[in-house]
Amino acid sequence: MLRIFLVLLIPFHLFSDGWEGIHYSKHFKRNIAYKYVLNGKDIAGHLFVDPLPQPNTYTCGSTNMAMHLGYIHWIELDKFRDFSDSFFLYEQVNTNGFDGLSTDEVKKGFETQLRKYHLKYNLKEKGESSISYTTEKIIKALIDTKRPILIYGNSVNKNGELGTPGYHYLTLKTAMKWKEKYYFLINDTVYNSEACRDSVLKPLPSNTWITEEELENYWQKTGSMIPYFRKHMYLRTW
User: Fold this and answer.
1) Which residue of 16, 48, 93, 220 pairs with 165 in a disulfide if CB–CB is 3.0 to 4.6 A?
2) What is the residue-wise DSSP string for 134-175?
3) What backbone torsions phi and psi does residue 160 show, to the nearest 5 degrees?
4) What phi and psi values does residue 131 have, to the nearest 5 degrees?
5) Rounded to 5 degrees, what are φ and ψ at 73?
6) 238 with 110: CB under 8 angstroms?
7) What pLDDT shows up at residue 1?
8) What is the pLDDT of residues 37-61, one digit of tens each?
9) Are the beta carbons of 161 and 201 closer than 8 angstroms?
10) Neighbour-count burial of 59, counting CB atoms closer than 10 A to its CB (0-12 exposed, 13-18 middle, 19+ buried)
11) Are 49 and 171 in contact (CB under 8 A)?
12) What is the DSSP letter of 204?
């Protein structure tokens, strides 16, 4: 099933060069992590991360956490664990009394939930000034760690207006460099969310390739009051 899924996503002339499974799940009897090798170089990493819709308008952080936790549970324990009750996660993690989760809350909640299953991973906050430079690191991280990347991004509305940087989380599950251009697959929790169906937001479809330019609209620089020091921020597991 996954191989059919990948054929639909990747241009056919790419597929013939070879996807390689880098993590096989005995429980699911399939690979759930892949890399793509071309001329001896890793040019793409793809992780089978199930997209989840957020249950209300302010749980993108906990819903992205749920996707990451479920995937890591697969990789480490080869078992299915349902983390899809992201509102429950939100209540467990939220400490500031405000809607939404800070990166500190996400990091602490992530570590706390994994510790329950004796898994010791943490999230590190990183930032780069260029998306192209970031992507080189992301492809390597997807392949080396077999873990998704949590983007500290922003929303975009149907009129093309950009939301406040750092106010929306996204999960990057696939990154590819092809002919000096970059392409991505993103899980956006607003997509297919009943709670956000009538909103003015324009979510990213989960299984549609987007370009570096398109991603930048959803990943504006943040992290500092001074514009010069702002970067494209993301969280990755270590």
Assistant:
1) 220
2) HHHHHHHHHHHH---EEEEE--BBTTS-B--TTSEEEEEEEE
3) 85, 5
4) -65, -40
5) -60, -40
6) no
7) 44
8) 998 889 999 999 989 999 999 999 9
9) no
10) buried
11) yes
12) P
Placement of tokens 């191989």 in the chain? 3
Structure tokens at 38: 């071309």
CA dist 206 and 208 (Å) reads 6
pLDDT, one tens digit per residue, over 16-37 is 578 999 999 988 888 999 999 9
Amino acid at 145: T
Q: Residue 19 corresponds to which tokens in the numbers above?
A: 């996807």
Q: What are phi and psi of 185, to 5 degrees?
A: -120, 130
**Cα dihedral 58/48/175/191 (nearest 10):** -30
The burial of 58, by beta-carbon neighbours within 10 Å (0-12 exposed, 13-18 middle, 19 or more buried), is given as middle
Q: Which residues pair with 33 in a beta bridge?
A: 23, 47
* 73, 80 contact by CB (below 8 A): yes
**Per-residue exposure over 88-115, b if at least 16 CB sit within 10 Å of its own CB, e if not:** ebbeebbeeeeebbebebbbbbbeebbe
222, β-bridge pairs: 231
Find the length of the chain: 238
The helix or strand, by DSSP H or E, that contains position 30, with its residue range, turns out to be strand 30-38
